[in-house]
Design goal:
CATH class: Alpha Beta
Mean pLDDT: 95
InterPro entries: SAM-dependent_MTases_sf, tRNA_(Gua-N-7)_MeTrfase_Trmb
Shape: globular
Protein name: tRNA (guanine(46)-N(7))-methyltransferase
CATH architecture: 3-Layer(aba) Sandwich
Catalytic activity: guanosine(46) in tRNA + S-adenosyl-L-methionine = N(7)-methylguanosine(46) in tRNA + S-adenosyl-L-homocysteine
Bound molecules: S-adenosylmethionine
EC number: 2.1.1.33
Number of strands: 7
Helix content: 25-40%
Low-confidence stretches: none
Number of helices: 8
Enzyme class: transferase
CATH superfamily: Vaccinia Virus protein VP39
């Protein structure tokens, strides 16, 4: 991957004006999109694998090629790592054998998080590493903080870590988090230490001279955050 990644350009200069309304809506209006059959099947298989692990769960949501899932599995040998991404081509890129405590799952997170919440999953840690920024103002609803699935993501609970090369993304997420849960989380600069990058995007952005941002929040398990039909 080359290291001349462009900085994010957006027509937004601050948090989106419509963010609070969208979060309020997500908290009160059930998300009616049916769960895709392929994600349901992938979830059932992941659940069986997890049950065999007998270890607390760490989720790596939007794991891309799964390098972070592999690395986190090595850092947390007493945990079971599940990396989820919807891109078959990313997931199937050859990056060496998966550690025994890691599994990659092809699924849409919009469905996967709801299934996980309904199944009572309680990740101890949850990583959201460099989600697609969707920087155009018109695309707020595609960012996780503006998406109707936000209450499911937050309701899973655990130590949630979001990283992005777009400060505004993390700032907006922090606002949405506080609105939905009352919990505040600091938006901080993140400097990868030495040459250890958790993900290919982190490496690419850092080597391109871009600043990186992150937020860490400790969330209670709160399945009732997600409104039900
Ligand atoms: C910018 S990439 C970051 C990948 C990886 N975390 C990294 O830092 O190298 C964002 C990833 O999120 C995945 N993604 C976006 N929306 C998704 C969704 N609804 N369900 C599952 N994966 C999704 C994309 O396929 C992509 O691999």
């Amino acid at each position: 991957m080359d290291a001349n990644s462009r900085v994010i350009l957006s027509n937004q200069t601050g948090p989106h004006d419509d963010l609070a309304r969208r979060v309020a809506r997500a908290l009160t209006h059930p998300l009616r999109k049916p769960v895709a059959e392929h994600t349901r099947a992938a979830f059932v298989a992941a659940q069986a694998w997890l049950a065999d692990q007998h270890k607390p769960l760490i989720l790596d949501s939007g794991c891309g090629v799964g390098l972070s899932t592999r690395e986190l599995a090595r850092r947390f040998p007493d945990h079971a790592l599940i990396g989820v991404d919807r891109s078959e081509s990313r997931l199937t890129r050859e990056h060496g054998e998966l550690p025994a405590n890691a599994r990659l799952v092809r699924a849409d997170l919009v469905d996967f998080w709801r299934l996980a919440l309904d199944a009572g999953w309680r990740p101890e840690r949850h990583y959201l590493l460099y989600p697609n920024p969707y920087p155009k103002a018109a695309h707020l609803k595609l960012r996780w903080q503006g998406h109707p699935v936000l209450p499911a993501l937050l309701g899973l609970g655990g130590r949630l870590e979001l990283r992005s090369n777009w400060r505004l993304y993390v700032e907006e997420f922090a606002l949405a988090l506080t609105q939905a849960t009352g919990i505040t989380a600091e938006v901080e600069a993140y400097r990868p230490e030495g040459e250890t990058y958790l993900t290919p995007f982190e490496r690419k952005y850092h080597l391109s001279g871009q600043a990186l941002w992150r937020l860490v929040a400790r969330l209670p398990h709160a399945p009732d955050l997600m409104p039900r039909p």
